[in-house]
Write a structure and sequence with these properties.
51% helix; 9 helices; 211 residues; alpha/beta; 8 strands; 16% strand; five-stranded parallel beta sheet; Rossmann fold
Length: 211
């Protein structure tokens, strides 16, 4: 079974997906980490085409313990912390609009998801990567609440995060390739007033109904 969770930054995708995977005993896929890996590679090799870097990238996502963030290996080296740097996050958002990068990483994601049970989160899992997912959910929340959550996570100023978030939302929703939007048949959940536990309960109920 595949549970696809999409939505904008700060809507709770990663936290909910990790908790849901632990609860269901599924493997967790953080597709955003893969784009961050390409952004890191592009920073280290600015003379190479991003799409080429994406195709050649050896990315591994390992769940060391249920519910914990995945350990991200790039060419065998742990880059879990390096890819979370603010400048890498921004670069990953820009690269996500590159059709060649998206095509290469979608192929890698589909290969991973072809076997076993998964909770996969990102911005185009239900629309592009796995439109046949048994459960498709689109998480959203009030922009100010999303910015507050991100600022708390990053230890940043909420106003600055809100401004950056608006730019990223616009870029994600208007890009030519795989724009951010709910997938056909997806259940949209507004998490503004929901706790992580409440959101996980609702998505778990959808998964149980699909079994």
């Amino acid at each position: 079974m595949l549970v696809a969770i999409d939505g904008p930054a700060g809507a709770g995708k990663s936290t909910v997906a990790r908790a849901l995977a632990a609860r269901l005993g599924f493997t967790y896929l953080d597709s955003g980490a893969m784009y961050r890996c390409v952004a890191l590679l592009a920073r280290r090799a600015p003379d190479r085409e991003p799409a080429e870097l994406a195709r050649d990238a050896r990315i591994e996502l390992r769940d060391m313990q249920p519910g914990a963030p995945s350990v991200v290996l790039l060419a065998g080296r742990d880059v879990s912390e390096a890819i979370r740097a603010p400048e890498i996050s921004e670069a990953a958002s820009v690269l996500a609009a590159d059709a060649g990068v998206r095509a290469a990483l979608v192929d890698k994601q589909r290969e991973l998801l072809a076997q076993g049970d998964w909770v996969a989160e990102g911005r185009d899992i239900g629309t592009v990567v796995a439109p046949g997912a048994e459960v498709k959910v689109f998480l959203t929340a009030d922009p100010r609440e999303r910015a507050r959550r991100r600022a708390l996570e990053l230890g940043a100023d909420a106003r600055a995060v809100l401004a950056e978030q608006a730019l990223r939302d616009a870029r994600d929703s208007t890009r030519e390739h795989a724009p951010l939007r709910p997938a056909p048949g997806a259940v949209t959940l507004d998490t503004t007033e929901l706790s992580v536990e409440q959101t996980v309960e609702r998505v778990a109920a959808l998964a149980s109904g699909a079994l």
